[in-house]
Amino acid sequence: MVPALRYLSGACSRARGGFPGGFSAARRPAQGRPWPLCQGGRRASTRSFDVVIIGGGIVGLASARALILRHPTLSIGVLEKEKHLAVHQTGHNSGVIHSGIYYKPESLKAKLCVQGAALIYEYCKQKGISYKQCGKLIVAVEQEEIPRLQALYERGLQNGVQGLRLIQQEDIKKKEPYCRGLMAIDCPYTGIVDYRQVALSFAQDFQEAGGFVLTNFEVKDIEMAKEIPSRSKDGKMKYPIIIRNTKGEEVQCQYVVTCAGLYSDRISELSGCNPDPQIVPFRGDYLLLKPEKCYLVKGNIYPVPDSRFPFLGVHFTPRMDGSIWLGPNAVLAFKREGYKPFDFNARDVMDIIIKSGLIKLVFQNFSYGVNEMYKACFLSATVKHLQKFIPEITLQQQTMKVSDNDIYCFLWHCFGLLLTGSTCSFK
Ligand SMILES: Cc1cc2nc3c(=O)[nH]c(=O)nc-3n(C[C@H](O)[C@H](O)[C@H](O)COP(=O)(O)OP(=O)(O)OC[C@H]3O[C@@H](n4cnc5c(N)ncnc54)[C@H](O)[C@@H]3O)c2cc1C
């Protein structure tokens, strides 16, 4: 868990002025009510914690849960800027429990994804959280995609993904009667779940174990205490780190773990760390299949991935509520956590232009970017792509609307799209 957290947030370290460690903190699920500042927990005074976790998404909450279960004597607090937990990436993703097929064998990503998926299934069973192991087909529709598909199959086997099969046209039809393709990888281990529900359950476990969740707490500053508010018997300051929010309220702690999602670079900088890799926000648009046409899709249907962006590429995703999402495509967004096409934030735009190396990104991936913009502007282009898999899909008849927009988190420098972040979170 903690290694996963370090990898995903990339921001565990010393606070400005040099505090000894690096971490961040979560709250109660079901109703999503804010938790008063002094609730839950043990040993801690109202605003002091051994460990604070910044960010109440699935990564922060999974980290908080794991820490408190392994170290039950620690007082741990999660700080979340929104009124409710898990409302950003965790509440806006495709909801797929990925099997771990795409990643390089032996890599941390591959291990986290394969083991994370198994743990998510086990956890959902234990907690009675609904999920569907509906499987996934990665389908080659052109002859030239077949070598890449076969290589991907080998990779999946090396990663230890359960139940993988390479299947031909007739078996594709048995699995997905409306899908056409030349060859496919059948991955029965892939599933779907509502990750927000999983995250809220993590928060509940955390609070039941004595952890605190403070919502409406937007971290604005992290610094070392100048005075000595509390000392332990050996004379050392017990809670040397002060974390302030936008309202001027403070919490003190010994360690901070940062899991701030689309703000992870800014929070990393606040804690005295390197802000790299910088976040460049991309919006992903999905189409929604008309309810009466949902019979066209049984499980997840994905294209053979572009090796540069293995998780991009418009796909068919069944949802826990029975709907089918088609997408997403990826378009540069002008606001982090901005879900509408015209959401705009001047600081976010300046950061994209000045700090993020966007120009390099654009030059390196010019044709891909233009294609994505084109698909976003002309829905018929997206639908044409979808028709390669299911020819029955048509714009007027099958799709209802462009659904709420989601935000992609492109991590500049590494192109490490964390589009399996929820699956990995448990591990
Ligand atoms: C379009 C899309 C589809 C995806 N599909 C899948 C999928 O199918 N399967 C999968 O496994 N993964 C998927 N992912 C990836 C997955 O959703 C993310 O990796 C995961 O949700 C990240 O969780 P997080 O906790 O790091 O971030 P978030 O859920 O964004 O949480 C970060 C939290 O930090 C809080 N925060 C930020 N700044 C501050 C501050 N200053 N003070 C206090 N709190 C702060 C935010 O409010 C937020 O609640 C997808 C992602 C996207 C964008």
From TrEMBL:
Pfam assignment, any one: DAO
NCBIfam families (UniProt xref): PRK11728.1
Gene3D superfamilies: D-Amino Acid Oxidase, subunit A, domain 2, FAD/NAD(P)-binding domain
Family: Belongs to the L2HGDH family.
Names of required cofactors: FAD
Stored InterPro entries: FAD-dep_OxRdtase (IPR006076), FAD/NAD-bd_sf (IPR036188)
Species of provenance: Canis lupus dingo (dingo)
Entry superkingdom: Eukaryota
Name of encoding gene: L2HGDH
Swiss-Prot/TrEMBL catalytic activity: (S)-2-hydroxyglutarate + A = 2-oxoglutarate + AH2
Example of a GO MF term: (S)-2-hydroxyglutarate dehydrogenase activity
Protein name as annotated: L-2-hydroxyglutarate dehydrogenase, mitochondrial
Keyword annotations of the record: FAD, Flavoprotein, Oxidoreductase
Domain FAD dependent oxidoreductase: 50-349
EC number(s) per entry: 1.1.99.2
